[in-house]
Amino acid sequence: MKAVSNSSVLISLSIIGQLDLLHKRFPDGILIPAAVWHEVVESAQGRSGAKSVAAAHWIKVMSIADTDLVTMLKTSLDTGEAEAIVLAREQNIAIVLLDEKDARKVAKKLGLSVLA
């Protein structure tokens, strides 16, 4: 089973040294959109999560096709959350990892299961 993740889940688990819990729970891997990769790895070099996420072979960065939906969702969500929700829909991945209440609500309305 696979899941799509937003940045805060990756960062939080990395801070406590438990990023591998995601791999154990989702052995087929975690997909993340480019905005999440940028936030966690590229713009956060030297901070918690950057190195461990970059080194995790089971985390795969994927591009988003439906940029119109991302733009619409960004009216109430941040870019990483919007892209994570769209990526889950595009890849037919039922589970998305989100911690923000508004993002969870939107994901559920779009038929996704949410783990926080």
Structural class: alpha/beta
Q: Strand-and-helix sequence, N→C?
A: EHHEHHEHHEHE
Mean pLDDT: 92
Number of discrete domains: 1
Query: Which segments are poorly predicted (pLDDT under 50) over 5 or more consecutive residues?
Result: none
Question: Would you state the CATH class?
Answer: Alpha Beta
Radius of gyration: 13 Å
Named CATH topology: Rossmann fold
End-to-end gap = 17 Å
User: How many runs of DSSP E, i.e. beta strands?
Assistant: 5
Estimated helix fraction: 40-55%
**Biggest sheet overview:** 5 strands, parallel
CATH architecture: 3-Layer(aba) Sandwich
Number of helices: 7
- How much of the residues is beta strand, in percent? 5-15%
What is the assigned CATH homologous superfamily? 5'-nuclease
Shape designation: globular
Give your account of this protein's structure.
The chain is built from seven helices and five strands; from the N terminus they run βααβααβααβαβ. Helix 1 (7-15) packs parallel to helix 3 (34-42) and helix 5 packs across helix 6 (79-90). Helix content is 50%, strand content 15%. The chain has a five-stranded parallel β-sheet. With 116 residues, the protein is of the alpha/beta class. It has helices at 7-15, 20-25, 34-42, 50-55, 67-73, 79-90, 101-109; strands at 3-5, 30-33, 59-62, 95-97, 113-115. The protein has a single domain (3-115), classed as 5'-nuclease (Rossmann fold), CATH 3.40.50. The protein is globular.
Key terms:
116 residues; alpha/beta; Rossmann fold; five-stranded parallel sheet; 15% strand
Map the helices and strands.
Blueprint lengths: L2 E3 L1 H9 L4 H6 L4 E4 H9 L7 H6 L3 E4 L4 H7 L5 H12 L4 E3 L3 H9 L3 E3 L1
Parallel strand pairs: 1-2, 1-4, 2-3, 4-5
